[in-house]
Amino acid sequence: MGKIILALSLLASCALAELKWAPSYDAALAQAKKEKKNVMVMLSKEGCPACDYMTDVVFEEKMVMSEVAKSYVPVHIDIHNDFIPEGLGYIGTPTFHFLDANGKKIGRYDGAANVPNFMGILGKYKK
User: Fold this and answer.
1) For residues 114 and 119, what is the distance between their CA atoms, to the nearest angstrom?
2) How far apart are CA 91 and CA 63, in angstroms?
């Protein structure tokens, strides 16, 4: 019985562990100022296999979730459905922009990356 409860609690904690995306760009900047973090903007679009890889594989990895939560306020912007703030351009998707809490660009990464490479990118632009 104890093993079943342990298994269920592990499953529940895994199901609840996910990135907490800011609801908007402006909300991300406000939260970043309050929490003294940088902002990670992900520009993507529906039907983008590389975007899906980032969401379904890379952002599900515990060490990525932990680093993002510790150092960034993440915000997702759909290039077809959401307002794209000035200066946050893209050639393809996904495109990641790293900003300070005032919205100043500190870095950019175009495309998807595997977990070790994305951890390096996160480390490069964190506060």
Assistant:
1) 9
2) 28
Residue 8 has pLDDT above 70, yes or no: no
DSSP, collapsed to helix, strand or coil, labels residue 115 as helix
SS3 state of residue 26? helix
Please state, in angstroms and rounded to a whole number, the distance separating the CA atoms of residues 93 and 10. 34
Continuous segment of H or E residues that includes residue 27:
helix 25-35
Contact 96, 108 (CB under 8 A): yes
Would you report the helix, strand and coil content of the chain in percent, each value rounded to 5? 45, 20, 35
pLDDT digits (tens, 9 = 90+) for 36-48: 999 999 999 999 9
Q: Print the SS3 string covering 45-92.
A: CCCCHHHHHHHHCHHHCHHHHHHHHHHEEEEEEECCCCCCCCCCCCCC
Tokens representing 52 are 């899906």
pTM of the model as a whole: 0.86
In this prediction, residue 17 carries a pLDDT of 64
